[in-house]
Every structure is written in structure tokens, then in C-alpha cells.
TrEMBL record:
It comes from the Bacteria. It holds the Pfam family DUF2141. This is DUF2141 domain-containing protein. Keywords: Membrane, Transmembrane, Transmembrane helix. The chain crosses the membrane at residues 28-48.
């Protein structure tokens, strides 16, 4: 006659798999998947949503005003990059690209530079003659001044960044085609917001 061990709990055949059956009956996998999708959609919306414009306390009217176009230097493009991180001493880094193959790789940029923002913005002056017919601009605010765009979970940037045409994408960076600009024929000013 077998001896029953008191240390091991006795389970009846009906109790085996009770939790597994309850999970299946309540459609646990489906509900968990639904919650995961809602969570990811929420993250994407937060990540891709533009900031409240009241965060930017910078007077943007002086360069963007068409009446001021005559006061621009001849044959230049002025690129004004505005940040919401007014207290950060880190530089804003900019790169100009001439092709989709080079886009996003700072080592292949045709022009790259960095300036420390004053009052929340920096301005670059680039001669029109050195720009190709079509180009794209990428900029980011290097808050910790480590020379690279810091990233977090799912490779999402954690430092403010922006592109020409103020292009954004829900998943990953915008494409080169979304950020392409034509070289202007006369002096002009553009603005990029990094957030």
C-alpha cells in the first residue's frame, strides 16, 4: 500500500489546470494583447505629438516676417533652430545632407556644426552656393554635450530633435523625402523646432 507524503499537496484531477482553463475562458491572451496595443499606441502618440507652443518663449517674428527679407545678408539661408530646453547649456547640433543614402549619418553630412543656444535658439548662416539643389537638415539639442543623440527604449530619442520641413514620423525618423528642401534662389530664413 503506497504511503501518502504529507509534504506534497494533494491535487485532485479537477484542480489540475484550473488557472489555465480560467485564463482561456476569460480570453486572457486576447485581453493582454489588446492592453499591449493600447499601451504602444499611447506611447507613439506621446512620442510624436508636438509640444505646446507656449513652451517656446522666443520671438520668431523677426526672421520669419516677409518684410524683413530685405535685411537678410545676400545669397544665404538662415537656419534658426528653436528649443524648449531653455535651461540646458548643451549645444544644438545641425547636419545638412545631400542624399537619402547619407541621411541620418552625421559622418556623411555635407555640413555639420554645433552652437550653444542663447535664449532658446541658435542661427546658422549658410551660403547658398555651397548647398546642393536639394538637401535635408537634421538638428538635435545635445543636452548632456556627449556628441550623440541619446536614445531609450525602442531606440526612441530622449533629447529634443527636429528636421527640415518640421517633418515627424510616428515610427522612427522621417524619411529623406519628407525632409527635402529645394535650394532657394534668394536669401531666405527657415525655422526648425527641436522637441
Amino acid at each position: 500500500m503506497p504511503v501518502q507524503n504529507d509534504k506534497l499537496p494533494f491535487r485532485s484531477p479537477n484542480e489540475k489546470g484550473r488557472y489555465r482553463r480560467a485564463w482561456k475562458e476569460s480570453h486572457g491572451n486576447l485581453l493582454l494583447s489588446f492592453a499591449g496595443v493600447i499601451f504602444l499606441i499611447g506611447l507613439a502618440m506621446i512620442w510624436a505629438s508636438p509640444p505646446d507652443t507656449s513652451e517656446f518663449d522666443v520671438d520668431l517674428g523677426t526672421v520669419a516676417n516677409t518684410d524683413q527679407a530685405q535685411s537678410l545678408p545676400p545669397n544665404v539661408i538662415l537656419i534658426r533652430v528653436v528649443t524648449s530646453q531653455l535651461d540646458s547649456p548643451g549645444p544644438i547640433r545641425i547636419a545638412v545632407y545631400d542624399s537619402a543614402e547619407n541621411f541620418g549619418n552625421p559622418d556623411r553630412a555635407i555640413i555639420k556644426d554645433s552652437l550653444v543656444p542663447i535664449d532658446g535658439f541658435v542661427v546658422w548662416e549658410i551660403q547658398l552656393g555651397i548647398l546642393p539643389e536639394q538637401f535635408a537638415i537634421a538638428a538635435y539639442h545635445d543636452l548632456d554635450d556627449n556628441g550623440e543623440l541619446n536614445r531609450a527604449l525602442f531606440n526612441a530619442p530622449v533629447e529634443p530633435y527636429g528636421f527640415s520641413n518640421n517633418a515627424r514620423s510616428l515610427v522612427g525618423p522621417p524619411t529623406y523625402e519628407q525632409t527635402i528642401m529645394e535650394r532657394p534662389s534668394e536669401s531666405t530664413a527657415i525655422e526648425i523646432r527641436v522637441y
